[in-house]
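Hey, can you fold this one?
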Amino acid sequence: MIGKARRGTRVASQRVRLGDREFATLGVKRPVFGDLYHYFMTVSWPRLFATLAVFFVGFDLLFGWLYDLVPGCIANLSPPGFLGAFFFSVETLATVGYGDMHPTSVYGHTVATIEVFAALTTLTLITGIMFARFSRPRARFLFARNAVVRPIDGQPTLMFRAANARHNVIQEASAQLRMLRDEVTVEGFRIRRILDLPLVRAQHPVFVLGWNIMHVIDAASPLWGATAESLRASQASFILSLSGIDETTGHLLIGRAQYPSAAIHWNRAFIDILEEGEDGVMQVDYRKFHDVVPLATEPGRPSDTEPPR
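Sure. Predicted structure:
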């Protein structure tokens, strides 16, 4: 049940955006150091490199300070003092080994041994994180920003448009469509329901160019009798999920798009993106991929890039 957040109490909060709605979670701390793998896998690339740079400098400052605690433990220290100890720590961490500066005492060798062990462990972990980020499969599914409701074979039909931006084969692609909306039960309990919307065709054997994903609004549909106003009043939104196996890499690809009720255009149609060029080659114009037009101006020819229903 949706209630009012208490005011005047300062607690840890985190912003979470779901489609066009934003939420603030209260009372749940985000343990960055307790979940470093998830942090490094989800943080942006600039922030990742900034974090690694800060760690690198902090690591060398720490061991430089340890070397500087006992003057004379490093031979040929240049420049003298803490700065030279810092640069020696950098060379030890990177296992550069220029040959001029080296430990001369048991203390120096001990600190260097600890630093080399910590450096090897840390560099191994960083290498694993970088490999995991680069090797993580990413779908290049293109979802139209809008959806339309239009008649198909005499039935009002909710239609979404998706495409494979890589233009390679996605095998056994599947689609799932779900609607989220606010409802009130007979007891007066307000709840946000998740409703499955069955599709005319939920699988695509060879997803290469485009795919019209359709849900028929009949008497069995949760959208039966719905209007643009009723969807807006219930704060309805739609989640379209696509998945399939990339034929090139064998990875499972997953993509998702969320549509608020304002993105559903009634009595509209997608502009056909398939046309024949002057050389006779069929052209798919993705510049018009997101465009919709009133039904009265819709071209009469269906798009050949879409699979049969």
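Residues 140 and 166 are 6 Å apart (CA to CA). Let me know if you want another pass with a different chain boundary.
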